[in-house]
Specification:
Order of helices and strands: HEEEE
Distance between the termini: 135 Å
CATH class: Alpha Beta
Shape: elongated
Largest sheet: 4 strands, antiparallel
Helix content: 25-40%
Radius of gyration: 35 Å
Oligomer: single chain
Number of strands: 4
Length: 145
């Protein structure tokens, strides 16, 4: 007796590997993830660039603020100038009066006087004028009788 049964071929379910649609979906997901990552990196680089551009003006402002009362006199008035880099600065010193304070004023002999110090720095960044203000309160030595 001869058997007319052919050997059974394995069905497609038994085949290993990925179908074309699975590969396309995986590539699409990878592309979207890379797009999000690229946007995040671009945003981070732009923020770092803006921060780096702020460092020189901030250094000038901090140096001017630190000098008041040390190398510059702590008296009411204002001074201005410019650095070689094109950063312009202005230091304003004003008497500070706290209306809520009921103690002796700084005009009284032997009482320290409080001043408000404001440093304003201006510069051009990409053709756009920019500015930065730093404020501080400084205590002057009391007047001797």
């Amino acid at each position: 007796m001869s058997s007319s049964a052919r050997p059974r071929r394995p069905g497609r379910r038994d085949e290993a590997g990925f179908s074309l649609i699975e590969v396309v979906v995986a590539l699409a997901l990878l592309g979207m993830a890379l797009a999000v990552l690229t946007d995040s990196v671009r945003t981070g680089l732009a923020s770092a660039s803006r921060s780096a551009a702020l460092e020189p003006p901030l250094a000038v402002a901090e140096a001017r603020l630190a000098a008041v009362g040390i190398t510059e006199p702590l008296v009411a008035g204002s001074t201005a100038g410019a650095e070689k880099s094109g950063i312009r600065w202005r230091v304003a010193v004003d008497d500070y009066n706290d209306d809520g304070f009921d103690g002796p004023s700084g005009d009284t002999s032997g009482v320290p006087k409080l001043y408000r110090v404001r440093v304003t720095v201006t510069w051009l960044q990409g053709g756009t004028p920019r500015s930065l203000d730093l404020d501080s309160l400084r205590l002057a030595m009391p007047r001797q009788p």
